[in-house]
Design a protein that fits this description.
Length: 202
């Protein structure tokens, strides 16, 4: 087994969480006063992917949401507050990531709209935690497309077996594992750290 050189982290659902511990969709549905099952197909539409690769703006995506859910324009303020104020960074995990960075290359790999860069300067500050930040909005690729993992490996200069990838969605870790990357599905902070430490010790 090759030694681990890089640890690649997902953002939302791993380091970034909703204030109530709900999923992104469940929390947004609650804020908008709609049923989760009504929101789910809307969030699976191509507009969400276009938002994540910065092909449509926040304004356009919020307008799409309101139209698809048949909600009044006034609800846009709810969405704008939700996308930043209803989330927090897990400070314990962030400290752990910063500590690991002393020995391993630290990478953030996320499907996220372009506002991630602004929010990381204001509410979601992760200064010093990552050597590389690879976001879908910048590279125009979306997990679990193998191309985004291949790009990540090329950018950090590691072979697949030298990397561990942590994500809260199994479909994303499976795609990385198919290339030879060690995958961990995030369920809790404690479980994730335990699973990662086992890989690092081996």
């Amino acid at each position: 087994m090759s030694p681990i050189r890089s640890i690649i982290w997902d953002f939302a659902g791993v380091l970034l969480h909703t204030v109530k511990g709900l999923s992104f969709n469940a929390m947004l549905a609650e804020r908008l006063g709609v049923l989760p099952e009504a929101l789910e197909p809307v969030m699976l539409a191509k507009e969400n992917e276009l938002w994540d690769i910065d092909e449509i703006s926040d304004d356009d995506f919020y307008a799409y949401l309101l139209n698809a859910l048949q909600l009044p324009k006034e609800k846009e303020a709810v969405i704008r507050r939700f996308v930043i104020k209803d989330f927090y960074i897990d400070q314990t995990l962030l400290a752990y990531i910063k500590n690991l960075k002393q020995s391993f290359t630290s990478v953030l790999l996320t499907n996220f709209p372009a506002h991630i860069h602004d929010f990381m300067q204001t509410d979601w500050i992760v200064d010093g935690a990552f050597d590389h930040i690879i976001a879908s909005c910048d590279v125009k690729l979306i997990k679990p497309d193998p191309a985004i993992y291949e790009l990540t490996l090329k950018r950090i200069g590691n072979d697949a077996e030298e990397c561990v990838f942590i994500d809260d969605r199994e479909v994303n870790t499976k795609a990385a594992e198919a290339l030879g990357v060690h995958g961990i599905v995030y369920k809790t902070r404690k479980q994730t750290i335990s699973d990662l430490e086992k890989i690092l010790r081996s």
